[in-house]
Amino acid sequence: MTKTGSKPPKDRSRGKIIFAGVLFALALMGLWARAYFVQVVKGPEYAKMANRQYWASETVSGKRGEIFDRNGLLLAKSIATPSVYVRPNEIKDVWTVSQRLGSILGMSPKSIAANMGPKKRFVWVARKVSDAQAEAIKAEMLPGVYLETENSRQYPQGHMAGQLLGFVNMDGNGIEGLEKSFNDLLMPSSTKYTVQKDAAGKRLSSLESGDRSSFNGQDLRLTLDSQVQLATEEALARSVIRAKGKSGMALVVEVPTGDILAWGHYPFFNPNAVKKIRGEWKNRMAVDIFEPGSTMKPIMVAAALQEKVCTPGKEYYCENGKWSVKGRRVKDTHKYENLTVSKIIRYSSNIGAAKIGLELGAAKLNRYMQELGFGRRTGLPLPGESAGLLNPVSQWKDVELANISFGQGLAVTMLQLADAYLCIANDGVRLPLRLLHAADTPVQGTRVFDSNVAGMVMAMMEEVVQEDGTGTQARIEGVRVAGKTGTAQKASPTGGYGGDYVASFVAIFPADKPRYLVCMMVDEPKAGHYGGVLVAPEVRNIGVQLLNSSGMLAEPVDAMQMAKVSPDRFSAPVKRTELISVDGEFMPDLQGATVREALEILVARGIVPSVKGQGIIVEKQKPLPGEKWPADNKCQLWLTGQPG
């Protein structure tokens, strides 16, 4: 039996539907709220994050400008070199990463780890590493470790003109030599640009190489001639070594233009391996000053001739080698009596020069020295160039005037000395010395001496070499050579003069039509101290090579003459062979080639060979033909006299 009055079960479906609808509405509202929060509130921030993932800002820099000699030979260039850096905030295991980097780079893991502070965002680990090290680091795929390409400076010709070129620091800024003087010109520019990346972080776009080159620094072309530079450096080295000197300098100038063809220092300095030793990289030609000694006499005589104080034939009594000026003794190396002005220059009489200077007077001599540039910088683009030392004329008493007349009591740079002799060689017109090649730029000078005065001084200097003067070891058969020796005591730090000397020689080739001016100096020689003995032979050697290479010698110097100096490296005609290949990794066959042909090939590869024997033809070579180019850039050539 069924009970009556019982209630039917309630239908809860509606409530469930409402509850579900409410939940759905709340969820939808939450989604809308989240969407609002993401798109509106956080939208700009997330957009930036997305841009950082797919777009990146990168800095692009060009290469530092290159430096060339007058003929286009590369003297300094920049190459791409990898550097290693880390982002410490991306590295979880600092010690493991430091150990792996240390083993590859040859560094202490502790020092690497010590630099990885947790708050640092960027840390250099090693700058300008080798390609092999960079590849090893890539293979490790270490988190937070990156490679950056930087430009590294290289000097393909090694030590050639090293002190003049100078060098750059790790950041590519010039800090010595021409690299410093022309840093603003050589320095590349840079810019930031945006690059797109894919999901893996790889670039989807980049600048074209042509666009990148627009950021490169400007190139520099010098007046140097690498062939002349090489010959000058070798001759200078022989002179310093033979004289057992401390150091030396040599300068070669083209007389008609004032172009500096060679700028040599010894000991040599290789800017590829910079050592913080002042004596190696110091540009002594511009910075160091020295008492010129007897090389000042022709300059003083030129002033006296210009002022008509004397004539070449006027005689002065030279006191039999000993004389006193206001209690200060002046000596000659020989006991001369009456000497003409020409013979005072020829025999380099201090007493005779002092008497001419005293007759000329301090004011007049000082005026000409000022006009020739003594006491101030030459104006060449060189950092730290010295102005020399020339006391005010008000301080020139008789003793000081006498000393200055034969080259003591003042100090000059070799550039100043060369500048003054260039004026005499150039018919009395002073030209500016030039280091930057400007073939089409007209050369303008200032007349200091009359043409006939310059001619008289040139004739006196010619007697120094061609007659029985102090420079006979600079003679070249068939060529008129003008020159002047210099031997000066060095001032002692404690006052007066000590036992050290500066030996020098200045020559002009040829004397009748000056083309080349050569100056060389050896500091503190121990195997003697006379410039005519220690320096003149190697200056002659440079002159022979210059005149041979320019075709100004009627006939090549014979073997006996060449043996008196050293192997003629440039006596062959200037003609590059087309039969010798320098491509690839193997040494070409240089046997049978002329010295000049061989040198052009080797120097272009950055190799300065050593040479044995006499002559102009390569007889043997090492490395042998077909062997790999030497990794240490060492090459030996043996010479013979004639082909076959």
Summarize the structure.
The protein is α+β, with helices and mostly antiparallel strands and 644 residues long. 34% of the residues lie in helices and 19% in strands. The protein has 23 helices and 21 strands.
Helices and strands in order, then pairings?
Blueprint: H1 13-41, H2 43-54, E1 55-61, E2 67-68, E3 74-86, H3 94-105, H4 109-114, E4 123-126, H5 131-140, E5 145-154, H6 162-165, H7 177-181, H8 183-186, E6 190-196, H9 209-213, E7 220-221, H10 226-243, E8 247-254, E9 259-266, H11 278-281, H12 284-287, H13 297-306, E10 315-317, E11 322-325, E12 328-331, E13 338-340, H14 341-347, H15 350-360, H16 362-371, H17 398-405, H18 414-425, E14 429-430, E15 446-447, H19 451-466, E16 482-491, E17 497-509, E18 516-523, H20 531-534, H21 536-549, H22 559-563, H23 595-604, E19 610-612, E20 617-622, E21 636-640
Parallel strand pairs: 2-7, 19-21
Antiparallel strand pairs: 1-6, 2-3, 3-4, 3-5, 8-9, 8-18, 10-13, 11-12, 14-15, 16-17, 17-18, 20-21
How would you characterize this protein structure?
Helix 13 (297-306) runs antiparallel to helix 19, helix 14 (341-347) packs across helix 19 and helix 15 packs across helix 17. This protein has 644 residues and is α+β, with helices and mostly antiparallel strands. The chain is 34% helix and 19% strand. It is elongated and about 165 Å long. Strand 17 and strand 18 form a beta hairpin. Strands 2, 3, 4, 5 and 7 form a five-stranded mixed sheet that branches. A five-stranded antiparallel sheet has the order 9-8-18-17-16, sandwiched between helices. A three-stranded mixed sheet has the order 19-21-20, with no helix packed on it. It has 23 helices and 21 strands. The protein folds into three domains: 79-156, Penicillin-binding protein 2a (Domain 2) (Alpha-Beta Complex), CATH 3.90.1310.10; 230-550, 3-Layer(aba) Sandwich (Beta-lactamase); 586-640, 2-Layer Sandwich (Trypsin Inhibitor V, Chain A). Its main location: membrane. Residues 581-641 form the PASTA domain.
